[in-house]
User: Fold this.
Amino acid sequence: MSTLPPSIPPVIQTAQPAKGKGMAITSMVFGILSYLGLGFLLFIPGLILGIVSLATKRPGKGMAIAGVVLNGAFLLVAPLLMVSMLLPALTRAREMAKRVMCQNNMNAISKGVILYEAEHQDAVPATLETLLKDGSVNKGLLHCPATAKDDSVSYRYFPRPVVPGKAETMILLTEPASDHHEGRNVAFFSGRVEWCPPQEFDRLLSLPENRAVAQAMTKN
Assistant:
């Protein structure tokens, strides 16, 4: 009696999960959003997702290519966008630095005037060049760093007798409005230096103790 060979169980083919289009779609969406203000956060993930989708041959090849192109293009223009975003801030910082340097110049000049008064029986120097010759200040202090460099004195100086009790508001030194944006530095007979927007400067000029300054500035 012959024996039958053992039966071989059929091999069951398990269905492989279909690869979806999620990576391709996400890459393309990130590429679009990169140009809507979110580029610096999304273009690198979007580029990686697009490349992975193409490398693994997932569905949605066209969308993956679009995502790679969009995100790759943003990668090329990103440095230019960063420069355009940072340039206003850098310009502002440079202007602020020049403003502070100008205030330091005026502060040193004001102290030079006070020192000159102490040594000359309360007489103020007739010109800023007098301070320079006297040795109270050096030449570099007489020039605002925001103006074109030359040998001229860029500050406006207004020597006159001090009105009693008005040293805090009497303008001793100022500069042309064109030196800076949105205002100018002003030094007072008290030695104080402050930044004055146009409205505040106009108010100072309207004070009786600054009438001579207002007249002098109107003539020029």
About this structure: The first strand starts at residue 156 and ends at 157. The CA atoms of residues 79 and 85 lie 10 Å apart. DSSP finds five helices and four strands in the chain. The chain has two domains: 22-80, 90-219.
